[in-house]
Amino acid sequence: MDDRTTLEKQHDRLTRRKAIVGVAVALGGLALATTGVQAEAEEEISHTAEAIHQETSYKASRKRVYEALTDTKQFDKFTQSNGMNSTALGNKPTEISREAGGAFTLFGGHIIGRQVELMPNERIVQAWRVVDWPPGVYSIAKFELTEQGSGTKIVFDHTGFPKGLAEHLAAGWRSHYWEPLEKFLA
Known about the structure:
The chain is of the alpha+beta class. Helix content is 38%, strand content 27%. The protein is built from five helices and seven strands. A seven-stranded antiparallel sheet has the order 1-7-6-5-4-3-2, sandwiched between helices. Strand 5 and strand 6 (139-148) form a beta hairpin. Helix 3 packs across helix 4 (72-80) and helix 4 crosses helix 5 (166-185). The longest helix is centred in the N-terminal third of the chain and has 28 residues, at 6-33. The radius of gyration is 17 Å and the shape is globular.
């Protein structure tokens, strides 16, 4: 990272700011709709948007689950345990920033985004996108990690993706995340 040019560093900072501002604007819009401007805002709210809600449990601590989802080497290991090569959909190496605002690149560069919020062992919120989506389109992927006995339950919500992709994305989360993560943590 030290040999990157100043221009590349400025581009990364700008991209990070845009992602954070975009999420803040989206969240601000939600807050606006609930603060007394209800009648006017009602016309601006889609009641047909698609969303994914999945819950899955693992026989591992929240720390171990969090690390598997946020550590580059562990993420590669668990995705490869399902026979999926980390670069199967592209040629870029997996990179996962462990800082809010930092970038991530998964599955050979097919999935990219920014870490919006990282609360170690509790929550991961990402501005998440597939590279072939229209430019500037980011969804929000939220992983809530809660204790469940001696294990961990992930409550996962994915919103803001292009219409018509819910079924495909839901299947992808199961086959590329939850199933291989279960094998990895066993």
